[in-house]
Amino acid sequence: MHKLLDTIRSPKDLRQLNQDDLPQLAQELRKFIINIVATKEGHLGASLGVVELTIALHYVFNTPEDLLVWDVGHQAYGHKILTERKTIFNTNRQFGGISGFPKRDESIYDTFGVGHSSTSISAALGMAIASKLKGENRHHIAVIGDASIASGMAFEGLNHAGVANANLLVILNDNAIGIDPSVGALKQYLTNVKIGKQKQDNIFEALNFDYSGPIDGHDIFKVMSELERLKSVEGPKFLHIITTKGKGLKQAEDNQVTYHAPGKFDAKTGELHAKPSLRQPPKYQDVFGHTLVELAKQNKNIIGITPAMPTGCSLKYMMDAFPDRAFDVGIAEQHAVTLAAGMATQGLIPFCNIYSTFLQRAYDQVIHDVALQNLPVIFCLDRAGLVGEDGATHHGVFDLAFLRCIPNLIIFAPRNEIELRNIMYTAQLGLHHPIAIRYPRGRGVTLNWEQPFEIIEIGKGIRLKKGKHLAVLSIGTIANNVTEAISDLDVSHYDLRFVKPLDESLLHQIFIDYTYILTVEDNCIKAGFGSSIVEFAANNDYKNDITMIGIPDKFIQHGSLIELQKSIGLDTQSINQQITDILKKQS
User: Fold this and answer.
1) 313: which of 33, 172, 353, 443 fits an S-S bond (Cβ 3.0–4.6 Å)?
2) Which pLDDT tens digit goes with each residue over 364-397?
């Protein structure tokens, strides 16, 4: 079925092939990727776009002795298949299987763990300088996309590499799209280069790189010829290749945003599998997007900002409705936060939508540019908590811990879609403080979610169930697991809603009424919501027995949300067992 691919276990086997056979190998590799991703899901388009480049790199360079770094890693499926993981590639992103991203402890060929963008140039440069200091003769290659190279960190790496005189090759995989279409002035510059309208000096040559290209990234012989030439060039080198995301599958080429990670589809026709026709609750991201448009119609000062995720966070709805008031700033989280801060100084109301895991990149800006100046920026943190198959690099499980220590910042986690709408409504009325609203990936629980807006009192928790023997305190949508877990138990359940400020009046009453208290959160236990309750108890000299459930002090890998929750005791059954064990202590 895969005549050539079946003979390859590692790049050593690949290098035994005749060059004339490589186009056929590319065809077989594409088919292999399509067949697996069609049933197992994953990131499709990016890997299809770099099949020729992947083969050429491992054919021309002596990997793993020569060090290859992929940026983000969405495009590394072909790399994984050619580097001793073909027989287990069907476990990609599955619980207990291989990671969807390059990962150092998975393979010697994965020289640097990735998942977030724009790290490849800095990492590969670090390796190149290390080789130079150790007197080692190795090649160091960073493969980066046109969306990622526009990020500030990539520019920092280019700036240093241009004067480091190290043996570094940067390959720009230019397909004009990341997850959404690329944006910004650099995109226009690259477009001008591609269509021959370049009038200004070459920006990469100005940074002291030996620039070549642009060349057709799907012409494997041209790519290999240029790679062979560049092997003999000393110092920083830059190869600009043009590719098509989704190459080899017509639907993926025509619908590049959808087929970035298309879910299950027909491997032969490329058609997406039909979604269930039953009415379902909306995704939280769509609740955010539609609500923002609704609010923006009423309040002309509302602005939407996202760093390169308009589809993922559903800011696209506001971009369509109010194109002058919604901004995709590219992969630039630091800029997004300070841009929002600048707008807030002028009376605008910025909703800055960033995935929880990516807000980590803008921590200084949150503290220095927003909170220190007490500017009322509204942070909407999508993908908070465990996110599933994307794994450790994408779980948003640290935000409560790293945010709650920041003065002036309000932190809220809605239990459902209605509360998300209401806190967005409340925030735009004017809080005089910044606020972080964290909500999960995936669908909610409420079909009839478009209710009239209601103001939420800041710092006010609520009781969801009255019981006798124990108080369960939860934050955010994990409350739904708790509700199911305690359905047959005589215990109380409180949704604190705010991690900051805490509802201290409610907490005093809880600590007076209950000896045993259990906190539940889908955030790291260290310094998270539960820790804030323990601190409250210590500060007020309460001696109650407190148990905390949350993300343990380790990086959680990939798998379905249900599998991951079960593995760490956050599923309904595990919560029920924890509570039952506590109740047994009382009897």
Assistant:
1) 353
2) 999 999 999 999 999 999 999 999 999 999 999 9
